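Hi X.,

You mentioned you wanted examples for the new student's onboarding notes, showing what a folding record looks like when two proteins sit in one file. Here is a clean example. The first protein comes first, with its sequence line followed by its structure tokens.
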Amino acid sequence: MMKIITRFVLTFLLLILSFSSALAQTNNSSNTVIDSFGDHKLPGWVWGGNLTMKYSFPNDNPENGYGVISSTTQVTANSFVGLVRKEQKIQFAQDNILSVMLQGVSNDLYATVQILYDNDKDNKYDEVNDTRLESKPISLNFSGWKEFFININDNDLKIVSKNKNEDFSILESEAYAIQISYQAGKDFKSSTPETGVALITLRPNKQTKQEIANSSDNTGTTESFFSLKNYPNPFNPETTISYTLKSASNVTITVYDRLGREVAVLLDGSQSEGDHTISFNASNLPSGVYFYRVKTPDKTEVQKMVLAK
């Protein structure tokens, strides 16, 4: 009898573990976890300046684990404190959302989140040859923890590069690392601050990107609701988009590149029922695949076109 009970208990525990694992995978299926700090160590992390970093507790669990970031010297106002860096290749896309949990210090300290690109492929980052995307300074003048969301676009990030021609096409390459830089503000009260970083995730980009992905997968067998087409296609540098409205409606027609970045708004207004055309001139754009989206309050449709110069 005891053996039967033991086997039953073991089977029950295995079922629970299997269910928990499956649930975790389901919950994370839409997000990429860059670091959960749940493995009781800090793989890929390096630090510098006046900062040191360690794991929060030797016997912690995934829900509570985080990286403890401490200053090794007295910090004064208006001074650079140091940085921590997660060296891991990550593929970002336009309008992804980078989520980072940061711990406050109740003092005038700022954190700047940076995405580093190793342009010359020498497995290190330097400001002369490489590029970074940099967030606005985040104030840590609060107590406890807060989650911060950074949109991967030029509203939330600026490009820092010696190459004046660098733009957000850098996203086509894998990032070399994520870095957090710390700076004391003018009202910082001298101390040896201790802060922390926890769960870092990359969330899917917005609706437009998904619509473009769906359009890329479209084999052409699905009937177009708006009878969408453009001619010529491929084109250089101008093409005419034709479409049909089944009733009078507000219409927005927008063009995106293959990374989901908006490059032109061709129309944003009301139109009558029937057939319509609108021209798109891409003389200022490079060759490549583009997408045009027709959106009304009731329906949205995306089609692909090719600019061949």
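Then the second protein repeats the pattern, sequence line and then tokens:
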Amino acid sequence: MRKNQVRILIFFFLIVLSILPIYASKSKADVIPLDSTGAGNFIPMEDCSLIMTNASVSFEINYSKTSNKIFLSFNGNYTIYNPAESIMMTLLAPFSDDFKNLESTCMIKSEDNTIPFSFRERDLDYYPWDEYISGNTRKLLVIEMDFPENDSIELEYIFDAYLNIKDYQDSVLRIFYDVGTSRAWNGTITERVEFNLYKKQPDSYLNSSYDNYEFMIFDIEDGQSYVWEWKNEMINTDSVYISYSYYSEWRYSFGKLFLILFYPVGIISLIVIVVLLRRRRKRKIKENFAS
């Protein structure tokens, strides 16, 4: 009976020790939630010969502690070239539900002419470019345009929005931009993505050295600018982002202290139990042999 109890105790320690490293990884500041918050590139509704030759986008992000909000202004400029005969094409721009007030402030222009658009829920059963959109809470901005033969059209996409910080308590807020959607177009692209952050700076951001982009950080008045650039190439990265951690500080500190203290104690306790168990077994063998 006691042997079974010891085995159960050892099994319990092994489970606890295996869970603790997972808890530690989830306590770090750069954990990304499943549902991401972002605005996306324009995507053609169907396969076509159109080429997005250039994209230059910027986020102006202002952290307001008094209002418990993060205010965003987005400005995107895109150049789309049609190398074939003229065509009417439907374009989609995905964005997250988390952006408040976006639909009422959004505007799309081409050569100073306002282009009509509509919003709709993401159609998972039909959407042809689903592989280029990350996250689950996405809506679609939809426009229809004529693209003349052997000509380029420049689009400007702007909006103002805000995020409620209280919606991200004990989690991480990641604001990202879908650069991977450039693969939905033919040819290569020259692209610049800029996050201008004022006051509070991010806890983490994308800066991977293995991909083919140039990353820079500049000082600006009352903040910093985070910039990613690609020059005439096929983009491999799916998205760029900045993120803020809103984990409760005392919970994180307690979890870290608990991990630091309990993890070695657990290992030592397990070793002691194993040693005592082996000594007990040897003692019983000797007693049985003596009798």
